Amino acid sequence: MHHQWKAILSFIFTLQYFRLIRTLQLTEIVVPDVVDVRDTPTLSCSYDMGTHTLNSVKWYKDESEFFRYSPMMEPNVRTFPVDGVTVIRDSPEHYCNRFMCRIQLHRLNIKSSGTYRCEVSGDAPEFKLAHGVYNMTVAVLPQYDPIINGLQHNYALGDFVVANCSSDMSSPPARLYWFINDRIVPSDYLQPQQETTIENDGFILRYRTLEIRFHIDEARLGKIKGKLMLKCLARIDAFPQGTRETTQVVYIPMTDELRNQKLINWRNGAQSLHYRSHPHSQQHLKYVSLLVLSLLAIISLSL
After folding, report:
1. Which Gene3D superfamilies did the record assign (predicted)?
2. Using CA atoms, how far apart are residues 62 and 202, in angstroms rounded to an integer?
3. 247 and 230 in contact (C-beta within 8 Å)?
4. pLDDT value at residue 5
5. Distance between CA atoms of residues 176 and 208, nearest Å
6. How much is the pLDDT for 219?
7. Considering the entire predicted model, what is its pTM?
């Protein structure tokens, strides 16, 4: 029994010892993978100080310090000039304490892409350190859906369709895809892709145009059922959150529909003819009546 109590007490003292020497550690770092150049991204890191007192939290971009939070100094927040990095000092997202530190950036540019590091340090005498690193890429993502030009509202079986799709400017450029009834079109429907390039604030912006050409043929398209849904999708493969798409529907009357439409038109034409001829019949009766009255008057005078 004595040995059991001794083992229990030893275990308790060990737990207390590890609690006392609990070390400083970074528990989470949040940096967006990809941001649009017009965005205001929020960066944050959380930490467990253990038995240590927080001395400072520093943010670096590519090894250059641009932000420091030091709760035991005045002022407790300082910023340093680094190309591509501007901290919003009065942002509601800006918040640092002994558990976490969150900052917000704005005025991004081509130099804002890079490696971001959050470094947390404890106070004297040990000055323990913990840090986390994450990469952020600044892109110019499409702001608008692709534009489809050239499609008519109605077609007939056998008609030849020509249309093109143009993406919004972006960096990196978007890849264009055509779909008919949610099925990607074969390559022989497509013309070579065209591209236009513009340089702006260090970004190489590109927009692309892809033309589609095909016959409305059930042998290749399958059962049409009166309409076709054409979709153009603009996708940046590395950044799927920038995907944009546009869909247009074109109508193709089937044989039965054309026959019914002709019958409707014939009936409408017959009714129209009836209504057009009716006033003339009334006028004819008036002439006959006047002629009869005239004959009666001539007969009475001769008597």
Report:
1. Immunoglobulins (2.60.40.10)
2. 19
3. yes
4. 46
5. 8
6. 82
7. 0.70
